Amino acid sequence: MSHNTFGHVFRFTTWGESHGPSIGAVVDGCPAGIPLTEADLQPWLDQRRPGTSRHVTPRQEPDQVRILSGVFEDDRTNGQVTTGTPINLMIENVDARSKDYSDIRDKWRPGHADYTYDMKYGVRDYRGGGRSSARETAMRVAAGGIARKVLGPDITIRAALVQVGSRAIERDRWDWNTVSTNPFFCPDAETAALWADDMDALRRDGNSTGGVVEVVVSGVPVGWGAPVYGKLDSELAAAMMTINAVKGVEIGAGFASAAMTGVEAADEMRKGETGPAFTSNHNGGVLGGISTGQDLVIRFAVKPTSSIRTERRTLDRELNETTIATHGRHDPCVAIRAVPVGEAMAALVLADQKLRHQAQLNA
Amino acid sequence: MSHNTFGHVFRFTTWGESHGPSIGAVVDGCPAGIPLTEADLQPWLDQRRPGTSRHVTPRQEPDQVRILSGVFEDDRTNGQVTTGTPINLMIENVDARSKDYSDIRDKWRPGHADYTYDMKYGVRDYRGGGRSSARETAMRVAAGGIARKVLGPDITIRAALVQVGSRAIERDRWDWNTVSTNPFFCPDAETAALWADDMDALRRDGNSTGGVVEVVVSGVPVGWGAPVYGKLDSELAAAMMTINAVKGVEIGAGFASAAMTGVEAADEMRKGETGPAFTSNHNGGVLGGISTGQDLVIRFAVKPTSSIRTERRTLDRELNETTIATHGRHDPCVAIRAVPVGEAMAALVLADQKLRHQAQLNA
Amino acid sequence: MSHNTFGHVFRFTTWGESHGPSIGAVVDGCPAGIPLTEADLQPWLDQRRPGTSRHVTPRQEPDQVRILSGVFEDDRTNGQVTTGTPINLMIENVDARSKDYSDIRDKWRPGHADYTYDMKYGVRDYRGGGRSSARETAMRVAAGGIARKVLGPDITIRAALVQVGSRAIERDRWDWNTVSTNPFFCPDAETAALWADDMDALRRDGNSTGGVVEVVVSGVPVGWGAPVYGKLDSELAAAMMTINAVKGVEIGAGFASAAMTGVEAADEMRKGETGPAFTSNHNGGVLGGISTGQDLVIRFAVKPTSSIRTERRTLDRELNETTIATHGRHDPCVAIRAVPVGEAMAALVLADQKLRHQAQLNA
Amino acid sequence: MSHNTFGHVFRFTTWGESHGPSIGAVVDGCPAGIPLTEADLQPWLDQRRPGTSRHVTPRQEPDQVRILSGVFEDDRTNGQVTTGTPINLMIENVDARSKDYSDIRDKWRPGHADYTYDMKYGVRDYRGGGRSSARETAMRVAAGGIARKVLGPDITIRAALVQVGSRAIERDRWDWNTVSTNPFFCPDAETAALWADDMDALRRDGNSTGGVVEVVVSGVPVGWGAPVYGKLDSELAAAMMTINAVKGVEIGAGFASAAMTGVEAADEMRKGETGPAFTSNHNGGVLGGISTGQDLVIRFAVKPTSSIRTERRTLDRELNETTIATHGRHDPCVAIRAVPVGEAMAALVLADQKLRHQAQLNA
Hints:
Chain A is α+β, with helices and mostly antiparallel strands. Chain A has helices at 38-48, 102-106, 114-121, 137-151, 189-204, 232-241, 262-265, 334-359, and strands spanning 5-6, 11-15, 22-28, 65-67, 71-73, 80-82, 87-92, 156-164, 167-168, 211-218, 246-251, 269-271, 276-278, 286-287, 290-291, 296-302, 312-315, 321-324. Chain A is globular, with a radius of gyration of 21 Å.
């Protein structure tokens, strides 16, 4: 029942606070013999890195990951590989500004975990949100890089931002190549341009907005996942819901399923070239908790950033009524940087499921 | 990594197939000294029982639960109480009709787990869906009755059906007292009447529909849950996603959060009579994975029943193209009977969280 | 942290009290497609069954095991096989005599769990020891039968009683064929005859004795187990220590290792016909927590039965000083019936390790 | 099923290899509000530190532990305290000599995990034993320091070396004050003097020896632990068996129980001044897996160091017969430095049990 560990066979545990000396993750259960260097992980971290456009927090963090254990360069092997022992990843916190924290120390920011941490623990590292900061997700992205190695090249995990505020993309303009060409991970260039304007206006107003992220995984074979309480979709939902500010998750048609009839919703089966082919994918690649071989499709909703420059009413720790406005460096739309985190969480769930599937074979 | 177990400290494991001799659950980790008899559990099962209206499956199952272990009537105590040892619950399968199953044995019903189970395991108990049948949820409801005892009388867990097909309730007509007066667990009598007509039409057409269930929990104190990977909302999402046919889960404002601004979304804090009072509950009672003391609000989407009388295209086990229509006894809207299951899952998550919270105190 | 569950991938959870209606076990994580019927499990239960000689408890329990879920006879398969879903095993308690329990209800039997259960839980099913009775081990033996199926025919698990009281066997007379020819599972017929006399004398005196059990497993390949906290020897030690009345466990040379020098203790390696051959097995088949391919050798010490006809001093529940003598049906040497239980626990640990090993392969 | 994690509620995960850049541990599940600084942990590490006498390895490691997360100095609290978030501990490896490792790279040292790691993983960090080195136990001692804080001042955990080779201490000369006055943690000064001579002789011969460690815990209240598979003695046995080179564990009278009669073995109960008093402690403070309130007494056997200067026969990785003698810096009796490790493991098991006990209360 570890609160800071995710996974069963392929597991990772994160540690560290936003403004402490460093953050890290221990990845345990990774098979041995997988080529792995820091250069394999850095590109994923660079995607999530702050300070890359005017639409995300200007905090400057190089986010250089170090591997402190669990790999070995043996002259009998072909370069550095995993050894089957725990892989400790660490990133130094560089731009953790020393400043006056008395405002967030003594007041609870609405929409933040300040109040609940204080009530639960009686003490919290309030600097930059401490443990509840989205900075923790950097380690998920790093660990997710190892998970991708476990999954191998036949499985492709991609994600995109499909809605910002009330403006959603046009699905018939979806182009995966567009995702890397705009600061929003948006698959639709026209919508991306509109979002840039929306965001500029919000920033001027000291306001923020929510969004929706969609993760698509191709290449998962039929049969991963498990019945009842180990369902693949349940674990994906749990995973996405652990990302900061996420308030909803859906698989396939999701909430739209509720308005469908059984005749419409059926993903009928036909004979394909290499096996069964489905006429649709309303189930998002999962039936009975087990993968069907179709694309996995997961969407999650991210609420607007709670840290805004507009003053909101709150209480201080002595229960006096007061107000607070947050002037630090914050993402006006946390959904943007949640895109690589969503990919990473999908990779982490699937690497675990792959190994769990192996475990249960009658070999 | 047990696939059939849920929970960490308060745990339950279910076993049994739809058409096997019986189904059951082992509840482990229940504190000792809690008064518990079969009569405490039966009312919850009666709510979920099939055959109670024309809108649910006509299968006749008395669903009489027996407690086979873990309780003791000691003349030194006040009646039968839990002993701290595992509580085994069992229900006989009575109306598991002997019939010709060759159709569902040899063909994969679209939208069902037939194909994925076959591919994963190579064999499945196809009778009535076997282990993937919603019959398994009877044991969740029984175990949920024990969870409610662990939570005590100060915590109230209620649920309602808030949407059937594309027709949602009117929220300003919400009346909890109405829920038990119609066959839909609907809190809005007018909408319930319309649903009855909708459902009659669907049944005539051999079709089915989806729906949305809302669970509301009052009385949870501030501080339950945990940061990062043990988040209360993540565990609630995982729990609801394990219910058959659920395709989406949201907490508080959920997907609507995406379209909000930070100014709108802030649940501001004011001084209440007995502590902090919030001006709204867009966060659904959870901040940073920890309960705020407000009502927990969880909604989940249920897809339409896949077993319909209308013929759909599919494959047989030899990969030949064919069609299937399901003529057995099925719920035309599985969301109805998912209402008590949603309540039970909330109770089970919260009983576990209560005990986990106790575990982590500095006593 | 389930108190009544053992294992990680291949897991089982037992439930039930000595004098309740039945006892049972849920085995989860068993691979699908393994042929399994009740007839596969019954022979192991018959070995452990009470009432088979004058040296064990005369309680008459047929111990007929029933499989209530998790298997299916599919006409496409070759007879009844496991389906990958939870296997629930159940045994009725037949000879749970209705009698006057007031003595053990109100007094704590020295050496029993009466006092500790009462202090921990405030209530206990005192009838026949309730949950702490060795009757629970029947379910381990049944679950162990499934574990043997998972391990397959190439792994042989055998156990013997090697010491009763202060009288140990002669190792150079060890003959596995002798084990089934005497009521002690003794591999040395001459010692078995002496034990019979020893036991008769003890019974006459209303006394009891301890013993030592040795478990030997052949055919485990090199590489099962895991470093550091998942060590194979650690899990075997934990497993044996969960058997009632066990007070010590050792692997290979065990406590005798302490008196050895490094020169003596080294299990040197030579080239064998099919791979490495070791000159000795002081390490009992485990190095660094991982199997070497040699025989696993585990020994455990069982204390004398605490339930004896000789009066011992104790307290009642009101802390008054009193005495107690136990006149029920008890094993004068519980180590005898611990022999098949030790075998079962080894099978259960190894089935789990086999599947865990599979999980961690780089496939 | 994490291989590198120990505990359930109070958990720790270690990482790092003997000759990597650093080693560490993440402690998760520690209650908030416990005063904790590096100075609280350092004294325990200093006890285990190498290079403190001629009888242990001359490797020079300052073993300065750093706390990188999970604590906070809040001006509202009284100094630095735990925050309820993961505590990452790290120690730099300083004296990891760069040298020629080709001998242990290509040959399997008898009695070491070289062969089993190679067979399991196909690759291993052979430098100084890598992950299988006893260096990992430094992190147990550090984490154990936190566990002691969780247990509080009323629980005393002490350990001593009671046997080296075939020479055991005289129990009637046992003096806890003597333990810190000799390099063996020996409670009997006369025996300690003889051991010094024994050890000098062994070192001259390029040989090594085993030993027995005894851990005694006072102040544990009645009621910790759990029935059946969560037994306190089972977890203590598992814990001690994870320490490098341990081959046997016993509780209370242990293996001597086997030779006792039930009349002798009964720990009779009398009325004490503040509750029940036992006439003896053959059960070592545990009945039915639950603490009795008496001292916990655990002993474990440590095999002689496998790394010796005397040449032993072995194979190389190409299965050629060869010999090996180990000339590095090694403890001639690893049992000595296992004394503080045994204490730490007891603390870690008990902190976990304390929190698990809290979890299961009917509050």
